[in-house]
Design goal:
alpha/beta, Ribosomal Protein L25, Chain P, single chain, 16 helices
């Protein structure tokens, strides 16, 4: 595809954004922001991106070959205002209204049912930063009330990954350690007539909510409900559930006699088989917000309809209401974050584990060399916006580029090319460079070895060279495996202009950035 095949104005936009991005980043543009800008103006090109991307890459390469002064001159010729900088309010918490001296306690309540992914990071950062800004308290609270889905390794993974992001907790709380609180509050709601024990089937309860009609058990006396509750807790009765007396005709369906406590029979990661009656999400989160004095919460707007229920429950139980702010569900284009999908992929061999490079788990991003600062910038860019949108992954890569560019060591990865023998020295020439070897030309390898190419994979040593070559001598390189984001593996010879240390970020010529994953096994994970 060339410029003539693109919609009107698209080619100029590509050039303009590439030039502007280069000027703003020390003379080197990245393709990601160009792709994002193009799709923003021409969303219909998304289905043709396989054909458009090579054109964008060519433009970026041409721009990067220019000096910064040339880049600046060209972008201003296209748009004189292109480099004008506005000062927008990029504060992700700008919508939050908290008075001076007001106490702030926030909480982030993940369920330890899988390894955390990039979607967890947004709510985590927002709640943490809100507490930090107002010198408040930040609580990490595990909402582990489903013994069938929580696992010990997920608690540990979340703490480790959140700490890697730089988040500090003032307290770590486990919902399952507060079962007596839930039992006490539930009994009190039954005693006050605000809750009842329903022995109807789950299907009948759902039907009653849809039809907006009361269940027969709703007319039970308080004494009958107390008796049933005690039998339920002892395990003498089953197939019952404790419901709040809401409003079965309420326009908000979450207020139609929602469940508070239900039976879940299974081995719990922390509590074993001590309990069989467990709180629902709505009940446990409102109880714990109240008990720990959580003043503010920031969460995804998928819970927005539950706010009315949470306020009502807190009022009934005598707790101060929690101020809740919502943001649009955070999604990344083509990201795999579903726990069910990942487990299935691990089982069938599609993924090597929760840190497979194809995934958007924090563990996978960490192994690839994506930095915590880049993740924070990426997830907070949309703040508390409620506009649904899938973020392009290239924006994360741009943020990571800014995070690593100053400290990354330059490196070369030579893959499947020609081996040139020069006396006792073997020179590994990269596959692309091999195609341009000319007999009689003199070359200098990455590590400073000069030779004249004699053809037939042979050469002779010289003291001066006409051109540099993407090549390295055998004694100065190591054979490595480069793990790619799609899970594929590339083998080749590698040399770095710096220390070869685990966790170091390197910038591979003509490729991008990678993290040295294991110096013993000689593996690197490609970032972008």
């Amino acid at each position: 595809m060339d410029a003539d095949d693109l919609p009107d104005g698209a080619a100029e936009l590509i050039e303009k954004v590439a030039l502007k991005n280069a000027v703003e980043h020390g003379g080197e543009a990245q393709a990601g922001p160009v792709v994002s800008a193009l799709l923003g103006d021409h969303p219909g090109l998304k289905q043709d991106m396989g054909d458009v991307k090579p054109f964008i890459d060519d433009v970026v390469d041409e721009v990067n070959a220019m000096s910064v002064d040339e880049q600046r001159e060209d972008v201003l010729a296209i748009d004189p205002d292109a480099l004008e900088t506005e000062d927008p309010n990029t504060d992700p918490l700008k919508e939050v209204d908290i008075g001076e001296g007001e106490d702030v306690v926030t909480a982030f309540p993940p369920a330890p049912e899988k390894y955390p992914h990039i979607g967890h990071a947004k709510a985590l950062f927002l709640n943490y930063l809100l507490a930090d800004r107002y010198d408040g308290e930040f609580i990490l609270r595990f909402e582990d009330s489903n013994p069938l889905s929580v696992e010990s390794e997920y608690y540990d993974a979340m703490i480790e990954d959140f700490e890697w992001l730089g988040v500090e907790f003032d307290d770590v709380v486990y919902a399952s350690d507060h079962m007596q609180l839930f039992y006490k509050q539930c009994r009190e709601l039954i005693e006050s007539g605000d809750a009842y024990v329903a022995d109807e089937s789950a299907e009948r309860i759902s039907e009653a909510r849809r039809e907006e009609e009361a269940l027969l058990s709703r007319s039970n006396s308080v004494e009958e409900n107390i008796s049933l509750w005690e039998e339920f807790v002892r395990g003498d009765v089953h197939d019952v559930v404790v419901l709040l007396k809401g409003d079965m005709e309420h326009k908000n369906s979450t207020m139609r006699d929602p469940a508070l406590m239900r039976e879940v029979d299974g081995e719990h990661a922390r509590q074993g088989q001590r309990y069989s009656v467990w709180p629902t999400y709505d009940f446990q989160t409102t109880c714990l917000d109240g008990e720990y004095g959580v003043t503010h919460r920031v969460r995804s707007k998928e819970f927005e309809l539950r706010n009315e229920l949470h306020r009502h429950l807190q009022e009934l139980m005598g707790y101060e209401p929690t101020e809740i702010y919502e943001f649009a569900r955070f999604e990344v284009e083509d990201a795999i974050v579903s726990g069910r999908e990942i487990r299935k992929g691990i089982e069938d061999g599609s993924f090597t584990g929760w840190d497979d490079p194809q995934l958007m788990t924090l563990r996978a991003l960490r192994r690839r060399g994506i930095q915590p600062t880049a993740i924070e910038e990426f997830v907070l860019a949309t703040g508390l916006s409620k506009t649904e949108a899938k973020r392009p992954i290239d924006e994360l890569y741009q943020a990571n580029y800014d995070s690593v560019i100053d400290d990354a060591s330059n490196a070369l990865f030579v893959e499947a090319g020609v081996d040139v023998t020069v006396g006792d020295t073997v020179v590994h020439v990269d596959s692309e460079a091999s195609a341009h070897l000319e007999e009689g030309m003199t070359y200098e390898s990455w590590d400073g070895f000069r030779f004249r190419y004699l053809g037939s994979s042979s050469g002779e040593r010289v003291t001066e060279a006409d051109a540099s070559l993407d090549a390295v001598t055998e004694g100065n390189s190591r054979h490595v495996t480069l793990v790619m984001p799609d899970g594929s593996r590339r083998n080749g010879d590698f040399i770095v202009d710096g220390d070869y240390e685990q966790d170091s970020i390197v910038r591979i010529k003509h490729a991008g950035f990678a993290r040295i994953d294991d110096t013993a096994a000689n593996t690197l994970w490609f970032a972008h």
